[in-house]
Amino acid sequence: MFKYFPHTNTDVKEMLEATGAKSLDDLFRDLPEAVKYQGDLDLPEALSEIEIRQKIGELALRNQNLISFRGAGSYDVYTPSVISALTSRQEFLTSYTPYQPEIAQGTLQYIFEFQSMICELTGMDVANASVYDGATATMEAMFMAISQTRRNKVLVSGALNPRVLNVLKTYARFRNVELVILEADDYHTSLASVKAKLDTDVAALIVQNPNYFGVVERMDEIANLIHENKSLLIMNVDPSTLSVLKTPGEIGADIACGDAQTLGIPLNFGGPYVGFMATTEKLLRKLPGRIVGMTNDVDGKRGYVLTLQAREQHIRREKANSNICSNQSLMALHTVIYMSLMGKQGMTEVARRAYNNAHYLYNKLLQTGLFLKVTDQPFFKEFVLKTYLNIEAMNKYMLEKGILSGLNLEKDNPQEEQEILFCATEMRSKAEIDNFVQMVEAFHVR
Amino acid sequence: MYDKLIFELSQQGRVGYSLPASDLSAEIALDADLLRQNEALLPEVTELDVVRHYTNLSKKNYGVDEGFYPLGSCTMKYNPKINEEIASNPLFTKLHPLQPAETVQGALEIYYETSRMLSSLTGFSEFSFCPFAGAHGEATGLMIMREYHLRNNDFQRRKVIVPDSAHGTNPASASVCGMEIIEVESTKDGTVDLEKLKALLNEEVAGMMLTNPNTIGIFEKDILEIAQLLHQNGSLLYYDGANLNALLGVSRPADMGFDIMHINLHKTFSTPHGGGGPGSGPVGVTEKLKDLLPNPRVRKENNRYYLETSPNSIGNVSGFYGNFLVVVKAYTYLLTLGKENVAKVAYYAVLNANYIKEKLKDDYKLPITGLCKHEVVFDGLRSEKATTLDVAKRLLDYGYHPPTIYFPLLFHQSMMIEPTENESKETLDDFIEIMKTIAREAEENPEILHTAPHKTIVRRLDEVKAARNPIVKYRDCL
Question: Which chain A residue has the Cα nearest residue B31?
């Protein structure tokens, strides 16, 4: 017997009799012999829990936890202890998508709360129940805009995270969407660069804020320009900054999307995270994915259901805008609990600390004389500096000290020669920053 | 007070967090036109408020740990606790995805080894874990299919054949990657009609998507012939891994002639469904399609693992490398099962489904007789006095999660029951007894079914009202 299988020999015998099969093998008599596997599976023998802990524990030791000064789409953030205590409850963890609302009110209500909080942060009218990650959220937003405008060209800010851009490129190619990547002008998206490429074929402009280089974009004039052209403005935003920064709603964006990893989700080597999408009332019916609505039951009691399902793949099949079936539910719950704990005050406080840490680090690095300023654009928690130091050698040196230094931008884009993207979130203490800067100096004089 | 929204518990000034004292207390010095103008309405609550609120919300849910969850096509198997413990190791959760390869060798090895084990179980050469879910895997797989033809200068191949019984995701996935769907009719016994299939084949057909066993739980006995027809036509065959649990270790999709597949780790490999996600939808391919897999691929050389970005790939489909922690859980499950138990998954899953089929066929219409695989589809009650929806709602009163209902679309009153290998004969017998009781009630007192559920915390909800007058955020109900 094995711990996950309850079938005793007697059970098997009785159940086979009931089904009329002669043996367990006989249950597969409808398979042609040629497709029955006769080989020897290349799998290890079953391991006990004690051995599993040992084996995977040893594997884990081949990974290294580092003090991070790197962001670029994945941020070392504070995760309150309450979150895992609650998200690990079996009722949340082991249920599936809420097909039977009477026994899924827990899931439905937290999704309603998620939608509400995403709308509050983004300033938009309606949000969906979440999607996989920020990159796929941006891709879905792109197709919403194409479907809404019936135009086929999409302008993309040159200051969009290249990892998000890569996903856009893949999908755009298969759908014959023309992507036009604007030149990043002084590390931001300039009005002139948009103007130069805007025409009546343009479905949307996609801008990230704060952008890949950490710069806070100035969007008002760009938003007007886009709307005069009857195109849509898609903003990829970091929700952890939105209690401070002008919201996509205030800017007049048509779709706000992005990754909510910054709302308390650990780095997780890139996943699971959670993508979010929010839009205007006007575009509600183009929004992909699940949406939860409030209603009443037959006794008049308040309750929640999946709603507006006529948009979705199981009804529209090949006419659906998206093929997403479910959502990234448990991660959405993770962020809802985070936002509830942090609340109005905490969200602002975390944003302020990240801003302060990054600016402190920026000034300290400049003071060493080893770095050059590249722009005067305002930034939030990430920034680019130029250096004549050998970045790869410096980063290697930092690894030996247990530090993950900034990202060498030249590796992704040779034009960004000798440039490094630094980040300091609310997790970095002043002492850690001071120590890091000292290490940079030590590397220089070593 | 436990029926409130978290917003309704808010009291001005309350907080649920603490942060270290900060030496850097400057205010944000950005121009006013870059700053938020209107305050966000977020809850102001204490830590205990949050703990109570979400603990009480959780009690309004039903999970696998609580009881039988025979939701067809979803493989709601037991989610082992050791998977969760292993995946919560900070040496996994605190890894930045852009850390240098030499600092994440353990994580890369897990990707590599899981791919290797899945390859052994399915017969494919290599898996990519970049897709986040089944639907995402489908889209990725179809892109690989399309790309394969493009590389052969076969530009006109953009049609994908799916059976009329296919899941709604299949056609949606095809259109997401710029392909078109053609449906092939099923025979009376619910399998692909070979003659009808032949008639559809031409030089525009990129490939065909199939689940096997299909959506009604029947093995496509002509699979080798189907594969041969497609391949002779220059087309590829895609395996939707939704139903892989039926065949694990017994039969391998690549050996049936499939070229591409996706697996749902959250179905067959025991990772929790989490109320709808995160899942993982790895895509596997045969040797000739390996170079097309999404970027980046995990490679191994001289005992060192690294990530490779190739210009030959279809490109990236996710921000980083997929849902890593979900893969850690599936890896843990595979090591726990081991070679000696892996094939028993399919044996017991299929035994359980056939047992239910035999025991319920006198009370529920069985449109397709004969062996089923891991799930069984009934076409509603034999009694005409109540619908499948009524039966599902009545099951809630008895404390069960209902089966999948009104899918597949082939039958009007579909009821798709998938008992996984983890369920004991006693659990099945209890469920069978309740299903029979409900069938009796339908005859004797149908009203109790029509008005069910009676014992749940909310009863039937007004979906029409929700759609007609959408309230989709807290501010809408202020």
Answer: A378
C-beta separation of A300 from B250 below 8 A? no
Q: How far is A197 from chain B (nearest CA, A)?
A: 25
- Asked whether the beta carbons of residue A330 and residue B274 sit closer than 8 angstroms, the reply is yes
Q: Which of A284, A318, A338 is the last residue of a domain?
A: A338
- Residues of chain B found within 8 Å of residue A314, distances taken between Cβ atoms: 167-169, 407
Residue pLDDT, tens place only, A32-61: 999 999 999 999 999 999 999 999 999 999
CATH code of the domain covering residue A202: 3.40.640.10
Task: Using the 3D structure, point to which of A338, A355, A372 is the last residue of a domain.
Answer: A338
Per residue in A292-301, pLDDT (tens digit) is 999 999 999 9
CA distance A103 to chain B (A): 5
Looking at the fold, whether A120 and A214 belong to one and the same domain comes out as yes
Q: Where are the domains of chain B?
A: 82-336
A60 assigned to some structural domain: no
Specify the amino acid at residue A391.
I
pLDDT of residue B2: 60
Question: How is domain B82-336 classified at the CATH fold level?
Answer: Aspartate Aminotransferase; domain 2 (3.40.640)
**Are A329 and A348 within one domain?**
no
- Strand partners of residue B237: B208
Neighbours of A285 (CB within 10 A): 12
Nearest by CB: B35 against A21, A245, A353: A245
pLDDT single digits (tens) B271-329: 999 999 999 999 999 999 999 999 999 999 999 999 999 999 999 999 999 999 999 99
Which residue of chain A comes nearest to B138, CA vs CA? A323
User: Which DSSP category does A216 fall into?
Assistant: P
Residue B182 burial class via C-beta count within 10 angstroms: exposed 0-12, middle 13-18, buried 19 and up = middle
Paired tokens of B362:
């006198």
Q: Which of A105, A120, A218 sits opposite B60 (nearest CB)?
A: A105
Q: Copy the structure tokens of residue B391.
A: 């039966």
- Could you say which of A84, A119, A308 has the minimum Cβ distance to residue B475? A119
All residues of chain A having their beta carbon less than 8 Å from the beta carbon of residue B304 are: none
Question: In the A/B pair of chains, how many CB contacts fall below 8 A?
Answer: 658
pLDDT of residue A317: 67
Give buried/exposed letters for A212-247 (b at 16+ CB in 10 A, else e).
bbbbbbbbeebbebbeebebbbbbbbbbbbbbbbbb
- Chain B residues with beta carbon closer than 8 angstroms to that of A235: none
Judge if A211 and A326 occupy the same domain: yes
Write out the residue range of the structural domain in which residue A276 sits.
81-338
Residue B415: pLDDT band (50, 70, 90) is very high
Identify the pLDDT of residue B409.
86
H or E element that contains B49 = helix B47-58
Tell me which residue in A45, A66, A330 faces B339 most closely, judged by beta carbons.
Answer: A45
Closest by Cβ to B458, choosing from A243, A301, A315: A301
Specify the CATH number for the domain of residue A415. Answer: 3.90.1150.10
Do A188 and A171 share a structural domain? Answer: yes
pLDDT digits 0-9 by tens, B40-81: 999 999 999 999 999 999 999 999 999 999 999 999 999 999
Instruction: Sort out which chain B residues have CB atoms less than 8 A from A339's CB and list them.
Output: 42-43
Q: How far is B260 from chain A (nearest CA, A)?
A: 17
Q: Are residues A252 and A361 in the same domain?
A: no
Q: Which residues are within 8 A (CB) of A141 and not within 5 positions of it... i.e. 6 or more apart? A: A204, A206, A234, A236, A255, A257, A277
- ipTM, two decimals, is 0.98
Residues in B closer than 8 angstroms to A336, CB to CB, are: 6
Residues A223 and A153 both lie in one domain: yes
In terms of domains, do A267 and A118 share one? yes
Is residue A183 located within the same domain as residue A308? yes
The count of structural domains within chain A is: 2
pLDDT means per 10 residues, chain A with 446 residues, are 97 98 97 96 97 98 98 98 98 95 98 98 98 98 97 98 98 96 94 97 98 98 98 98 98 98 98 98 95 96 92 70 89 98 96 97 98 97 96 97 97 90 97 98 94
Q: What is the dihedral of CA B147, B148, B152, B157, to 10 degrees?
A: -70
